[in-house]
Amino acid sequence: MGSMFFGCSKLKEINLSNFNTEKVKNMSYMFYGCSSLKKIDISNFNTMNVTNMGSMFYRCSSLTDINISNIITNNLIDINYMFAECLSLNEINLSNFNTDKIKNMSYLFYGCSSLKTINISNFNTNNVKDMNSMFYGCSSLKEIDVSNFNTGKVIDMSYMFLDVQKN
Prior knowledge:
little secondary structure
């Protein structure tokens, strides 16, 4: 499903309720550039085998609601740029995300300038090697809890908090 709706900039609505994603391994760039979509609900997706969600919602600049509450992320390795430049997104709940195997979180929330609330306190970062620009440009973010982050294997943390709101 990589790049499936790539560049569908005029797409305003999408019903994904009947998608069978049981065998899917790659969802990278799936909605990249879907700049007119306001909400996406993939809570019914079976993502047990997915290893790559990099750039999945990149440049979905009108998104205000992403429902990913029920997806299983046990085998994810790469989530770089996953929510990058989701300019209209105010909050995102990633409390159910299993990040045990993830190695790349670079640019994860890059340019999410309207993002005010994010819950990533449960993130396991034991295997992450790249956190470059993870929160770069999150200028509306008031608080972020990274107290549980293990950065022992991280090679690149450059620009991780550049342009994040200063209280």
